[in-house]
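Forum: Protein Structure Q&A
Topic: Joint prediction for protein chains with partners

I've read a bunch of threads here and the consensus seems to be that you should model interacting components together rather than docking separate models afterwards. I'd like to see that in practice. Below is the full input, 440 residues plus whatever partners are listed. Could one of the regulars post the assembled result?
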Amino acid sequence: MTTETQQIDAQQIDRADLVEYLLRLGDNSMILGQRLCEWCGHGPVLEEDIALSNVALDLIGQARLIYTHAGEVEGKGQTEDDIAFLRDVFDWKNVHLVEQPNGDFADTMARQFMIDCYNVELFSALTKSTDDQLAAIAAKTLKEVTYHRRHSGEWVIRLGDGTDESHRRIQAAFDRHWIFVEELFESDDLDARITAAGIGPDPKSLRPAWDSMMDRVLSEATLTRPTADFPRSGGRKGEHSEYLGYILADMQFMQRAYPGMDW
Amino acid sequence: MPVVSLDQQRKFPTEAAIWRLLEEVPDPEVPVLTILDLGVVRSVAVAENGAIRIGVTPTYSGCPATAAINMAIRDRLLQAGHDTVTIDTILAPAWTTDWISEDGKRKLRDYGIAPPVGTAAGEGAGRGTLFGADPDVPCPHCGSAHTEKVSEFGSTACKAQYRCTDCLEPFEYFKCI
Ligand SMILES: [Zn+2]
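Posted by a regular:
Agreed with the consensus. Here's the joint model:
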């Protein structure tokens, strides 16, 4: 495909579709970033406290870039702050995995490794997006999420291949979070239109690489790949667990209490 | 050489003059580096009416220094009498530590921070791992090659924490991205 055709394709997508797709991307980063912030001052060791805050900062930075772009595509004057602070639960399009409670350090690392592996595949595909601004954001994001995956992946191995207690906890963490895997790779009509316009990949196409990385690391960590009988779904359509409301209450309090407040 | 009044230099600066001013702006988080050493200033343009446009690229998406750098640029130019300044955020191509100048790397080492090893493009010493190459980082204090990683993340987004097993000093490593 030539660059010229790609640009035309990107213009052919419905604006509302593109905004919706950008919200799905941005909301995953925003909610996980906000979740990880809860570790600040509570990390198991100082280095990990700092590490989790750094990862959170990257994620929130990515969300800011994506929201700013979404506001510009939409063309109604919404800023990144409007998008982050003035939407209620049903307007959020993140997957269930990112809104799960932090649990213990093993829960956080299992969740993080699952999403990091997903983000590496997703954002490498997005570097080829026909939406030039999204491709630019993806190129930047890809470097960061690749680094995050190294951090969470090494912890998964260290905990799995560590003591009996750490092995038991990280295995339990994967078991607990496995019901959220399917949702990462679901496709709907919006995905079909986005894929047809060359804006983003078909989520299903990311699965083989995700599976292969996951299997290599789980085996290195002496862990067993879990199975999920009743996978969760619907986050990307605005259906969420009750956890999301609490996250938003915390995150949006200032803007709700003092509308229009600026730093 | 035509004589140009100071007032005219202020109103219609050359691009070279703006670059010289930017050379004096320190990085807010690693103040031994200038923002030019760091490679974040991508373009400088002066319009016919004297309006200045500067393209700046963020190091990390969430780096809090980005806002501080933009403010410092405005500050320095304002001090020199330039008040019509637009700063554009340039995302592509994404910033890489390959853009840190050789002089910048030397300054980092002198300051006690190990500069990036190899290039982001992939050349350089290191051990292959499941998640990519893990670099061999020499100690900036004693030069020893016997060092170990303490944590992938440090006091700022751009650094990791290391320790020298010879002189036993901890040090920060400017991550290669
Ligand atoms: Zn040393």
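Chain A has a mean pLDDT of 94.
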